[in-house]
C-alpha cells in the first residue's frame, strides 16, 4: 500500500499531487491533445481564449480525478479520456463565466480572458466549450455518465445564481454557505469522480464512494481557497490577498468573524461588505478580526473535516495506486494553505 | 391535403401559423407545464428570469416544429415533449446570453432580463437553462438526438463568436454572413426539426428532409428578421426600427447596400457602422440607400429562396397534416414582413 498521508494537523505539508500526476501522465497527454483539438475552430478567437485559460497553469485536478477513478476499477477503453476532457471544458467554461460575473481582472497571475477579449467573447466561448463538452460526452455513449455531468452543469449554475442572489448578505449561515459551495464547486469534483466507476461499470457502492470522495474533496478545496484568499501571498497564488474581500464575497472566514464578533464589529463588516468600504485599511482590520476569532484556522478545520469524510469514502475500496494517490490529493489540497 | 400556400410573391400575407398551433396544442400544453417545472428552483431569481422570457410572447415556433416533426412520423411516446422543451430552453438560454453580448435593452417590447436583473444573472440563468435542457435530453435516452442537439449548442456558440469577431466589418461578404446565420440561427431550427424523425425512428431520408427544412426555414426566418429591423414599426415588433443599425450590426440589408453603393456611400456606411455615427439622421439616410438599392426587397427575395428549398425538402414526404402545417409556416415566416 502506498503512502496514505494522515490528515492530522501534525503532518501538514508533506502531501503531494505528484503520485496522481505520475499515475495519470500517459492519459493526461491524450487529454491535453484532445483539449487542443476540441478547442479548435476556424473562428480564431475561440482557440485563443480557450488556450489562454487552459495553458494558464491550472493543476487539472478534475480531469486527473476522472482518469484515476476510471482506471481504479480496471477501465481499459478510451471513454475516460473524453470524459476527463469534458470535465476540464466544463470547468473552463465556468471560469470564463465566473470572471464575467465577478468582474475579475486577474486569475492565476494572468489577466482574465474578459480583460483581454471582453465580456462578450468570454460568455460566448464559455458556451462553445460547454457545447463541445456535451458532444464529447455523447460520443462516449454512457447515458449514466451523461446524466451525472448534465446534472452537475445545471447544479453548478444554480449554485452560482444562488450565490449571486445572496451576495453581500452577512446573515448567510454557515449551512447556507456550504450549500452554495457544494453546488458551485463540489458538484463538478463529485461528477468528475463518479463518472470513473460508471464507465468502468463498477458497482453502486463504488460509484457512491467516488461521488462522496469528490463532493467532500470539493468542499475542502473551496474552503481552503477561501482561507487562502486571506492568507496567501499574491505571487504564489496568482491572485491578490483580499480579492474576495474587495469583491464583497461572503465566504466562511467572513461568516465566522461576523457571527462571532461584537455589535461594533458586525457594523464594521456591514460597512465593508455591504457598503463596499473595502480599502487596504479595512482589509487590515478584517484580517485582524479573523485572527481574533481564529476564523482562518476554523475554516481550515472545517476543510479538514470534509477531507476526512472524503478519505473514509475511499477507505473500503481495494488497495490500488489510484486510491492511494487520490487519498494523498486530499491532504495536498488542504496543505496548500501552509 | 391541407392548404399549401404558394410562396409566390402574389400570395403574400395569407399564410398562418395557426394550423401548426392547432395541431400541436395538446402537446404544447404539456411542454408549457414542463417548462414551468424545469425552470423551477428554490433560488427564486431563476424562475423569475426564466418566466420573464418564456412568458414574453414568443411564438414557440421551435418546440412546435419538434413536436410536429415527431408526430408526422407516427411517434407516440413522450420523448418529443422533453426534446421540445429542451429546444425552447436552449433558445431561451441563447436569448439571455445574446442580450448580454449585444447590450440590448428591449426584446419583444419588454425590458430585457439583463436590464431588470443584471448581466450577471442573465449569464448564469442561461447556463442553468442549458444544463436543464441537457438533463431532459438525457432522460429521453436517444444518443442520436443528444448528438444533434449538443452539436447545435456548440455550433450556435461558435457562430455567435464568429459574428462578434466580424462585428462592424463592412467587408463581410454575403456568403460569410450566411455562414454566420446558418450557425447562430438556422442550427437550432435544424436540430429542432431533425430530432423529430430521429426519436420516431424514421429513415435517413426523412431525417435529412427535416434537417434541410429546419436549416432553410431558419435562414429565411433570420433574413426576414433582418429586413424587419429596417421596415417594421416599433409597436408591432416590440423592438425599434433600426436597432441593428444602432448596434452597428452588419446584416444582409447593410451588406447589399454597401456593396452596391458608390464610394461616397460606402464612406457613409463606414462612418455609421464602424465609427458609430448612427443617429436618426444617419438611420434615415441608411434607409434611403436601402430603398435606392432595393436592399430590403432583395433580402426578402433571398429569404424566399431558402423558403423554397425548405418546402422542397418536405415535398416527397407523405401527405400529413403536420407536413402541411410546416409548409405553411415557411410562408408565414416570410409574410411577417408585409
CATH class of chain A: Mainly Alpha
Which descriptor suits the 3D outline of chain A?
A: globular
Structural class of chain A: mainly alpha
> What order do the strands of the largest sheet of chain A run in, or round the barrel if closed?
1-2
Quote the CATH topology of chain A.
Farnesyl Diphosphate Synthase
Helix/strand order of chain A: HHHHHEEHHHHHHHHHHHH
Biggest β-sheet of chain A, characterized? Answer: 2 strands, antiparallel
Largest interface comes to: A-B, 42 and 41 residues
What is the CATH superfamily of chain A?
A: Farnesyl Diphosphate Synthase
Work out the helix count of chain A.
17
Strand content of chain A: under 5%
How would you describe what is shown here?
Chains A, B: It catalyses: 5 isopentenyl diphosphate + (2E,6E)-farnesyl diphosphate = all-trans-octaprenyl diphosphate + 5 diphosphate. Chains A, B: Its cofactor is Mg(2+). Two copies of one chain form a homodimer. The first copy, chain A, is an all-alpha fold and about 350 residues long. Chain A has a single domain (about 10-335), classed as Farnesyl Diphosphate Synthase. Chain A is about 75% helix and about 0% strand. In chain A, a hairpin with a 2-residue loop joins β1 and β2. Chain A starts with 17 loop residues before the first helix and ends with a helix. The interface of A and B includes residues 138 and 146 of A.
